[in-house]
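Entry 14. Structure prediction run on the chain below.
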Amino acid sequence: MKRIAILGSTGSIGRSALEVIDAYPDEFEIVALSTHQRVDLLYEQCLKFHPKAVCITGTNLPIETIERIQKTGITVFTGAEGLKEIAVGTGADIVLNALVGAVGLVPTLAAIEKKIDIAIANKETLVMAGELVTHFAEKKGVRLLPVDSEHSAIFQCLQGEDILSVQKLILTASGGPFFEFSEEKLKKVTVKQALAHPNWDMGNKITIDSATLMNKGLEVIEAHWLFKIPISKIEVVIHPQSIVHSFVEFIDGSVKAQLGIPDMKLPIQYALTFPERKRMQADRVDFYALKQLTFFKPDFDKFPACRLAYQSIEEGGTAPAVLNAANEVAVQNFLKKRISFLDIARYVDQALQKHSVILRPALEDILTADLWAREFVNKAIDREEILPVSF
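Output returned:
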C-alpha cells in the first residue's frame, strides 16, 4: 500500500487525486492533506480519509472547524513550516504537490531530502528552481513523476525509448478562450471571460495563465528540466480540442502522441501507480464522434507571455523565478480588476527587464529573486507604471 501526502487537497488537482485514491482503497493510504482557505472541505476530506496530519496555510480561518478537525485526533499544522512537516513527517511514500505558486518549492525540497518520491503538479517548483530540484532529486534517487497532462503525455511516450533519440517535444495547448480574439478584443477582456476555460476545470490562477498562454510557457520550462531536453527542441502547438496531450518526435521522423479525454484523473493515476497502469472508470475517446483534430501555430505577438517564458529560461539563473513571481502578482491584480488582461504580460516583461540575473543560483538567491519580483510588480501597479515593452 502506497502512503500519499497531498499538498493542496482542496484544489482541483487535489480533489481529483482523492477520487482516484478512493477508487483503490486497498492500494493507497492518505497520510496528510493541506488547504489554504477551504477548511470546511478539508474537514470533510478528513472524515472520509482519516489522515495523520493536515496543514492549513491561510489566515482568518474558522477556529471552530479547525477544532473539529483536532477532535478527530488529526494533528493540525499551519503555515509554510506546516507544509514541510506534513510532507516529511507523516511517513509518505509519495508527496503529491498540487499547490499553486511558489509556496510549493520548499516542501518539495524537504521531501526530496528525505528521499520521498514527488508527484509534481506544482509547475512553479520547476520553473523557479528546476536545475536545483532536478539535480537534488538525482542525487537522492528520488523520482519526479509528472502530473500535468502534457508532461504525463511526454513521460508516457518516452517509456522504453532512449532520450538521445528524441528530436523534439511538442506541447499542446488548448489556446484558451481567446485564441481567435483580435488584439482589440483582448484589450477589453473581463475577469469573467478569462475564467471561462473551454475544456478544463482548473483553479483561477491556472485558468488565467491558460488564457494568456503563460501556463504553456511555464510548462515549456518544466519540460526542459523534467526531460533534460534543450529549450530549442521544445515547441508549442495550439490544439483546441485538448484530445492530444502532447507529442514526442524522434530522430527518425516518427512521432508518438498520447490521447485522452480532458480529465486530470488519468495523469494523476498514472503518476501514483507508475510503473503500473490501473483500470479507470472514465470516459474514453470516441473516434467516431470526433469531428476533427486541429493544430495551429501559436501567435506569440498576440500572446507574448509564452515568449517571455522562453526568454527567461534562455537567460537562465534567477530569471525564471522572476517570471513566475511577477506573473503570480500580475494575475492576482487582474483577478482583483486592478489591471487589464494585456497588462499581465507587460508587468512580467517589466520585471524581467529590470532584474539583474544571478546565474547558477542557490536556494536563497531564488527566494530573494522571487520576493524582489513580487515587490517590484506590486509597486509598479500601485504607481500605475508600465515601461516600454520588449515584445
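The longest strand covers residues 28-35.
Filed with the rest of this week's runs.
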